[in-house]
């Protein structure tokens, strides 16, 4: 019986640092490669899905994420859109569809 052997290897994670970058850049690149952004997008989506329309500051308060992290990621979240509302000078974000369902995640993790 001729059976091919199958060897599975973990996917390679490519860091976002050059060989000439400083050690801190390499550390940051490793952290970025751990799917931190994907986890942040999911937390933001879940906060708005469960809590209704929110500003980025409100999302940061609910999720425990840093306000700047939320500001950076909220526009990348599939299933969210800016509403016409403004609260305390901040844009309000809500679900882009009335359904309370989790959006499909594309290849980029959005």
Give the overall shape: extended
Please summarize the sheet with the most strands. Answer: 3 strands, antiparallel
Q: In angstroms, what separates the terminal alpha carbons?
A: 45 Å
How large, in whole angstroms, is the Cα Rg? 19 Å
Overall average pLDDT = 78
**SSE-based structural type:** alpha+beta
How does CATH name the architecture of the domain at 38-105? Orthogonal Bundle
Q: Strand fraction band?
A: 5-15%
CATH fold type of the domain at 38-105: Arc Repressor Mutant, subunit A
Helix content: 25-40%
* Unreliable parts: 104-110
Q: What is the strand arrangement across the widest sheet?
A: 1-3-2
Number of helical segments?
4
Compact summary:
This protein has 110 residues and is of the alpha+beta class. It has helices spanning 23-32, 36-51, 56-63, 67-73, and strands at residues 54-55, 80-87, 90-95.
Tags for this model:
single chain, 110 residues, alpha+beta, Arc Repressor Mutant, subunit A, 37% helix, 15% strand, extended, disordered C terminus
What order do the helices and strands come in, and which of them pair?
Elements: H1 23-32, H2 36-51, E1 54-55, H3 56-63, H4 67-73, E2 80-87, E3 90-95
Antiparallel strand pairs: 1-3, 2-3
Helix pairs in contact: 2-3, 3-4
What does this structure look like?
The protein is an alpha+beta fold and 110 residues long. It has a domain of 68 residues: Arc Repressor Mutant, subunit A. The chain has four helices and three strands, in the order H-H-E-H-H-E-E. The chain has a three-stranded antiparallel β-sheet with strand order 1-3-2. Helix 2 crosses helix 3 and helix 3 crosses helix 4. The C terminus is likely disordered.
């Amino acid at each position: 019986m001729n059976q091919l052997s199958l060897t599975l290897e973990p996917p390679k994670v490519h860091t976002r640092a050059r060989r000439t970058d400083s050690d801190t850049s390499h550390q940051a690149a490793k952290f970025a490669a751990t799917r931190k952004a994907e986890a942040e997008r999911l937390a933001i989506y879940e906060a708005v899905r469960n809590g209704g329309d929110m500003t980025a500051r409100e999302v940061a308060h609910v999720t425990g994420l840093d306000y700047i992290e939320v500001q950076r990621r909220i526009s990348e979240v599939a299933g969210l859109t800016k509403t016409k509302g403004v609260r305390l000078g901040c844009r309000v974000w809500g679900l882009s569809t009335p359904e309370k369902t989790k959006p499909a995640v594309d290849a980029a993790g959005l």
